[in-house]
Every structure is written in C-alpha cells, then in structure tokens.
Amino acid sequence: MKTAEDADAFLSRLTRGEKARLLQRVAQDLGDAYPGIDVIDEVCGGEPIIVRTRIPVWLLEHARRLGSSEADLLRSYPALRAEDLANAWAYVRSHRDQIAEQIRGHEAA
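and the corresponding structure tokens:
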C-alpha cells in the first residue's frame, strides 16, 4: 500500500511539534467519527456502514426492530463480529433520526 508507506516517510520527517499539530488536526477532523463505522460516498450511497463490509447500519437496526437477535444477525452476516454490532448500536443511539429516515426511505423504495 503505497499511501501508507508515503505517510510513514512523511511522518518520519516531521518534528515532534509538527506531529502534535497534525495529530490535533486529525482529531478535530474525526470529532464526529464513530469507531467501526465508515461513510464512503461510493459505497451504499454514502450511508453509514460497518467497516470491512458493505453492510449498512440502518439495515442492522431495521432487522433488530423486526425482532432479529444479535445471534441471528451474526449468523446471517458471517463478516460481522459482536464488536461491530456494539458499534452499530452506539451509532444508532446518537443518530436515531438519520437511521429512521434511512429505514423509511428503503421501505418506500
């Protein structure tokens, strides 16, 4: 992965102060990020998904509302881990309106 190698080379040339400033900027940029959740414009229409997958958070929440247990979800989606579900539920708790709107939008489609 050339990008990671380029980043390593770049970081090795920075002073400690420059690294601290860069880290502060990255932290500000990630202020509303959730561990284990990605939003990628080209994947699932830019809806929040579980990292390493194309599984939208709204889909998991919708299944849960319809009565699927975590065990059911883990069986149905072998790429998922329990930690992924915990991350999804945390995201849902803080983005209830967004997730509800995505569920409604997909039900109407």
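(Above: one complete record from the training split.) The helical segments are 2-12, 16-29, 57-65, 70-76, 82-94, 96-108.
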